[in-house]
Task: structure prediction
Amino acid sequence: MASSTILSLFGQSPIKPLQNHMHTVVDCVDQLNDFFQAVTSQDWEQVETIYNKISELESAADAQKHDIRLHLPKSLFMPINRSDLIHLLSKQDKICNTAKDITGLILGRQQVVPKKIASDMQAYVKSAVAVAHEAKKVIDELDELIGSGFGGREIDRINKSITKLEKTESKNDQKQIALRAKLHSIEADLPPVDVMFLYKTIEAIGNLADRAESAGEQIQIIIAR
Result:
């Protein structure tokens, strides 16, 4: 029974379940775009509906994470350390955890995004979501990397994907700087508590992008070993 469960979960390798987990993570993060559009419209019923979707996807990713940890063999007949896969899984999981934290922060106090920064905030969120998508692309190439026996052509390909991931995250950093500057220019006109929560939200969105980049870059560690 146990061996049958492991076989059905992993097939020939544990890579596919890790990739499936990342797909769930990105499905969760994708909800942020619609979430912030609803926040901008102050449609709090829709905000709550999307928050619930994010919570469901975060829970699904968490269940996948526990299944992978439970069934991951102690010894892998693969050129990858078990600990590296566990670290990758943990980094992936933190991405959707952060998405849930961001939306909970906004919904909990029905935090309004000022009109003067609303379009910048939405662009910033979209940019952070794009980083998660680039990380998923890197992780989706892991099985091909292993299948090639860590061949030079596939390593070059995955390194190019990681470079694109880093550039996407760097663009997100620039959007964060610009958004913080714009908020600073209007903060005197806003309630101080609102300003505090808006800065906290901006920081959390940046953390999401950072964690997505870190998950993708974990593949470089795997290659280096």
